[in-house]
Amino acid sequence: MGQTAAIMTQFTPYMTVLTCHPETSSRWVHGVEARVGWTGRRSLALRYSIEGDIARLRIPPPQPTRRGEGLWQHTCFEVFLSVKQSYWEFNFSPSGEWAAYAFKSYRDGGRIEGDRLDPEITVRSAANNFELEAFVRLDRFLSITPQAKLRLGLSAVVEENDGAVSYWALKHPPGKPDFHHPDSFALELALPDKSA
Predict the structure, then answer these.
(1) Distance CA 130, CA 174 (A)
(2) What pLDDT digit, counting tens, does each position of 58-79 carry?
(3) Helix, strand, or coil (residue 13)
(4) I need a labelling partner for 174 at 20 to 30 A (CA). Which of 47, 154, 155, 186 fits?
(5) Which residue has the higher pLDDT, 150 or 175?
């Protein structure tokens, strides 16, 4: 059990079911769930779970955690955090690769440089279930005032062995899949108590 798994037992996370985009579908994924919550250090703990025929999915084997690029082109789990117009995007691959981006407004931004994010990623797999957990030290680079309203978008890209891709999210805006759209940030998460 990694640090993330131990942390996930220390609080009651928010749990939600992600829905598949209506223009994409999957014969092998029966459902995707996400859990998210704060730790005492204003760090974010996330758990994503896929139910289905896992052998039919293209899931890269775990490797040492490192930065990657273009992770959303394959099986990948994502969280978007928004404060006013600004937002941040974090990608977590089952391979252990991760990526982080900062945006001033809709799709106006780029990669967060440096390794100060350095998340911990752990995975577990069985015949009918796959889980990825990520623990992100947001306090290393993101200052959030107690009055701020933090909105989250939770999403997943799931690739099948034949190359078919399905897109899962808390909420899909009209049109093609777009996790950056403000309507996708459908969860308001209360900030943790500073004294925790």
Answers:
(1) 29
(2) 999 989 889 999 999 999 999 9
(3) coil
(4) 47
(5) 175
- H and E: helices and strands count for the chain: 1, 13
Q: Other CB atoms closer than 10 Å to residue 45's CB: what's the count?
A: 24
Within 10 angstroms of residue 67's Cβ, the number of other Cβ atoms is: 16
Distance CA 94, CA 103 (A): 24
What does the alpha-carbon distance between residue 187 and residue 146 come to, in Å, rounded to a whole number?
Answer: 17
**Domain limits, the chain:** 3-189
* Cut 0.70: pTM above it: yes
12 exposure class (CB count in 10 Å sphere: 0-12, 13-18, 19+): exposed
Q: Name the average pLDDT for the chain.
A: 87
The rounded distance, in Å, linking the Cα atoms of 78 and 34 is 10
- Number of Cβ atoms within 10 Å of the Cβ of 103: 17
Domain 3-189 has CATH 2.60.40.1190: yes
Give the pair of three-digit tokens for residue 167: 């897109």
Provide the 8-state DSSP code for 7.
H
Between CA 47 and CA 132 the distance in angstroms is: 6
